[in-house]
Each structure stands twice: as structure tokens, then as C-alpha cells.
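Record pair follows.
FIRST:
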Amino acid sequence: MKRVFGLLISAVLTISLVSCLKTGNHIPLEEKVNLFWKARMTGNYTFDYNGHTLRLYNDFLPEKLKKEITEKKFYSLLNFKVLKYEIEEIKYGKDKKEADVKVKISIDFQGYRLDGIIVKNKWIMENGEWKVNLKTNSNPFYNP
């Protein structure tokens, strides 16, 4: 009986440990969008979430996009300060593996405050995690 109880406790602890090691698999889309825009507001692109370290480039971009753009170039596209944001709408695709997300933001760009800017991004499910499928040429304030 003690042996069965010990095995049961060991199995539960192992399952708990394995599930804790998976950082992004259980972050719902709305929460992932909030994490993305909060990082943009604070300028902290590496941050803790539920005991795990997340990085904007590594944990929010799909692999295909990371092959097209370096981390340095990605961060250069984030060249305006987000002052506030509000998720306006999330529309899921039929298969629930992609979604169109509309966010209204206010930014400070070179000393000018711009309010009510609508940003639309497609989010896709990749390996069980939501990733923002940004277009590298979609930043009107980026001038290479």
C-alpha cells in the first residue's frame, strides 16, 4: 500500500513538473495579446509570467517570421512608445488556430501624442502557443 501511494505521489509530482516547464501552452489568446501590449507599454521585452521568463522575440513571434527578421531588426521596429492600449476585437478563424486581433493604441512618437490608432494583427497557433504574425513592413514609423 505504501509503495502504491509513493508511486502515485511521484507520478503526480512528475506530471506537475512537466506541465510547469511548458511556458506558453496554457496562455489564452486575450492574455497573450495583453502581455504583448503591456511589454510594448513598459518597454520591458523580457519579463516574468507565472514563474517563467518570456521574451517578445522568442515567445511571441512565429518561427517563419524569426527566419525573415533578426532580433535586432525586430526591436528596431518598435521605435515608438505605447502609452495605452485597448483590445477592441478578437475574431477567431473557423478552426480556432488563427485570429484577427484589433487593438486601439495611443503612442508617443518623437514627442507627439497620437491617439486612437487602430492596429490589426493576425495571431496564429504554432506548437500549441499563440504567436503574433507581424508584417515587418507594417510599421509606418519605421524608416530603414
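SECOND:
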Amino acid sequence: MDTLFVTKLSMNSVLRIRKLAMLLIVVLGITAFGAVSAVSAQETGTVKDTVSKEYKETKDICPAVKQVLKNGLDTKETVKSSIELGHDACLVVRCAIEGGGNIEQVIVGALAAGATSDVCSRCAIQAGASPAEVAKALETGLGYSPPLAAGLPSIEIGLPGDARGGGVISPATF
């Protein structure tokens, strides 16, 4: 009987250990997921903090944006954060392009921060970007699809009165 009792006791212990192990795995998984989420949420805050810090040092947003981009931070997030901090969208777009930022990322970041497409295009062209590159970036940023290929057959519509015996009836003849 003692052996049977010890076997049942050890079986219960094994089941408890398995339950505790599963609980530990679930807790660690949730903790890891929370840490990854916090890191990605802080990434935007880090860019904002970096832009703010550079702005406080230079007292001008243009050199601050150029320096942040030179340090290798994400162009889209830098532009978005700078505009969200209250700086002029046109100035930020121009400085980001002059600072070597990718035109597409600059425009996507500005649009994400609430800048309008006309401001983005005008300021990007003022910074020296080619209009074709700006148009392509705007298509990408706004989700436009390219126009249909040329050469599609046109639809011909005849005007009333082309055939004999028909035509427009004038109210003057009544």
C-alpha cells in the first residue's frame, strides 16, 4: 500500500509541476509580448525625444531635422514627429529633403502627420526634388494607382438627329 500511495503522490506532484511549468511559460510569453510592444511604442517617443533634444540645442528645426537624419533615425518618423511637435510642415519637408532624406519617406511622414498633399509637393519641389519623384511619392503615400494604359478604345456616342427622319423637336413648331 505504501508503494501505491507514493506512486499517486508522485503522479500528483508531476501534474502540479506540469501545470506550474505551463503557467510559467504563459506568463513569460505575455511578458515578452508586452516588452516588444513597449519597445515599438517607445520607438516613436524616442524619435520625438531626439528631435526635441536637437531642437533645444540648435534653436532651429532645420538643423535639428538634418542632424537627426544624419544620425540615422527613420526619415518617416523624424518628419512625422517634427510636424507633430508643432513645427511648420513645409519647413520640415524642405529640411528633410535637403538633409538627404528619402523623398518618398519624407512625404509619407508628412502626410501621416496631417500635412496636405499640395504642401508636401510644393515644398519638396522647392527643396530641389524632381516633380516626377514627388508625383511618384504622392501616389505611393496617398495610395493612388497608376492610370490605365493608353490605347484603350474610345466610346463613341452619336448626337441626336444624325439619322434621317429624326432629330431634335423644337417647341416652336407646336
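COMMENT: The radius of gyration is 32 Å.
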